[in-house]
């Protein structure tokens, strides 16, 4: 998906683009037989379809829609179809006049406005597709103007996000005033309205989190939903307060507005780099309301003296169906990972994969977890209380059912007296089985099991 990654859109725009990848939205899709050009017409809300063109060589684009986002969702959808379903395009030798006109007027990267104006007169499609000659270095005034424009955009974004958080605070206060019971029952519509407002004010990541809240509440038992709602609303208040105190913090910007690109993370001096041997603990795949599928792959560092985890996140359109992952639970490999800068580094990128390794047992983390299995969660929350899922290694224990047929993980050591509820259903063959160590995600209320070590070997629980 190189085209989409290079455009670096926010998740909200990506979700909107995913909904436009259906063939019915594109009555016309064409590509040039020899040049790296694709174009099409997308039916919008008006009577005339939007005309969309994309240059795959340098990611230049043009769309006739009135959107203020650059690139707009129509460009992203066209690029997405070109990357995932190139057979959808009819190959032609002739390009429409509107594509030729755009090519004649556009400025290639590295080309000055004067060069573009001179070369646009009478330019043919073949001439427009030729690489532009190297432009002279920018003078000091041009560099200063460009940097000033960047600072202005950053300031405008910060002001918009600040206004979004003000509206979020007022919205949360309204929900508490109206009562949590009513909020749970009407959470879908209420969350949808505030999420749309946050998108308008450029708090796109936060909007996606709120948009998913109703689905998370409905997955719980009825008596658990009010507590889960107040817990999540409290985390949102803490996140908004933290952003106001440090709006330039990389982690907070990622959780509130937009994330960095892969290239930015790999080049970041603040990113933690770890070369080690890793095991794939399990996967967590969720279909989001914005039309995207979130695919989280959880890894365990097998060389670290204390439990260290990493999560690889990938997003794809739900309309594309189930996509095969690069890893399978139980896989072991050597790799160099680069972690996104954060208080609790978890999300990572595989910078370089160095080969596979043989399967085996986990390191003896049980001794570390013997004192308090949830000590790691307490430290995790102290550093970033606005986060939810914390990976933990649990000591020896077993899984049992209560009188309501709910699954619980029970510590084997009686002096702990710890029993934690398990999310979802559990295979009956696991009940009562002695588990030497278990990897799971704990959110303060429920465990999501990933994998266990037992006398029968490794067990995949995700």
Automatic annotation (TrEMBL):
InterPro entries: Znf_SWIM (IPR007527)
Pfam families reported in the protein's UniProt record: SWIM
Bias (Low complexity): 131-140
Keywords tagged on the record: Metal-binding, Zinc, Zinc-finger
Highest taxon, organism lineage: Bacteria
Start and end residues of each stretch annotated as Disordered: 101-156
Compositional bias ranges of the Polar residues kind: 111-122
Biased composition (Basic and acidic residues): 142-156
UniProt name for this protein: SWIM zinc finger family protein
Annotated organism of origin: Mesorhizobium montanum
């Amino acid at each position: 998906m190189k085209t989409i990654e290079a455009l670096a859109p926010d998740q909200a725009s990506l979700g909107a683009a995913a909904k436009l990848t259906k063939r019915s939205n594109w009555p016309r899709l064409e590509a040039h037989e020899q040049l790296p050009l694709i174009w099409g017409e997308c039916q919008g809300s008006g009577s005339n379809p939007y005309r969309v063109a994309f240059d795959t060589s340098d990611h230049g684009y043009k769309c006739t829609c009135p959107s203020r986002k650059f690139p707009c969702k129509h460009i992203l959808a066209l690029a997405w179809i070109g990357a995932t379903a190139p057979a959808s395009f009819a190959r032609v030798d002739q390009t429409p006049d509107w594509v030729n006109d755009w090519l004649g007027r556009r400025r290639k990267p590295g080309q000055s406005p004067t060069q573009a104006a001179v070369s646009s007169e009478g330019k043919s499609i073949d001439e427009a597709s030729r690489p532009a000659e190297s432009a002279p270095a920018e003078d000091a005034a041009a560099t200063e103007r460009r940097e000033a424009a960047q600072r202005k955009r950053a300031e405008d974004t910060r002001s918009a996000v600040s206004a979004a958080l003000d509206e979020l605070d007022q919205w949360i206060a309204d929900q508490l005033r109206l009562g949590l019971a009513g909020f749970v029952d009407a959470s879908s519509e209420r969350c949808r309205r505030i999420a749309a407002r946050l998108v308008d004010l450029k708090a796109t990541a936060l909007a996606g989190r709120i948009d998913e809240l109703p689905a998370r509440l409905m997955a719980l038992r009825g008596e658990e939903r009010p507590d889960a709602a107040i817990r999540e609303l409290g985390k949102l208040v803490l996140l908004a307060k933290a952003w106001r105190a440090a709006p330039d913090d990389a982690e907070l910007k990622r959780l509130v507005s937009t994330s960095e690109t892969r290239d930015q993370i790999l080049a970041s001096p603040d990113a933690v780099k770890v070369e080690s041997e890793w095991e794939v603990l399990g996967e967590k795949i969720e279909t989001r309301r914005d039309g995207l599928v979130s695919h989280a792959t959880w890894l365990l560092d097998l060389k670290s003296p204390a439990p260290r985890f990493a999560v690889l996140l990938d997003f794809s359109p739900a309309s594309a169906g189930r996509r095969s992952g690069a890893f399978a639970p139980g896989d072991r490999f050597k790799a160099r990972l680069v972690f996104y800068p954060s208080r609790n580094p978890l999300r990572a990128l595989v910078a370089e994969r160095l080969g596979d390794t043989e399967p085996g047992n986990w390191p003896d983390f049980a001794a570390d977890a013997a004192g308090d299995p949830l000590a790691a969660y307490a430290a995790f929350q102290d550093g970033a209380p606005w986060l939810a899922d914390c990976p933990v290694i649990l000591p020896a224990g077993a899984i049992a059912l209560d009188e309501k047929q709910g699954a619980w993980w029970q510590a084997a050591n009686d002096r702990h007296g710890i029993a934690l509820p398990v999310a979802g259903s559990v295979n009956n063959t696991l009940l009562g089985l002695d588990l030497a160590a278990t990897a799971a995600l704990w959110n303060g209320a429920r465990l999501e099991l990933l994998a266990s070590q037992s006398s029968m070997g490794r067990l995949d629980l995700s």
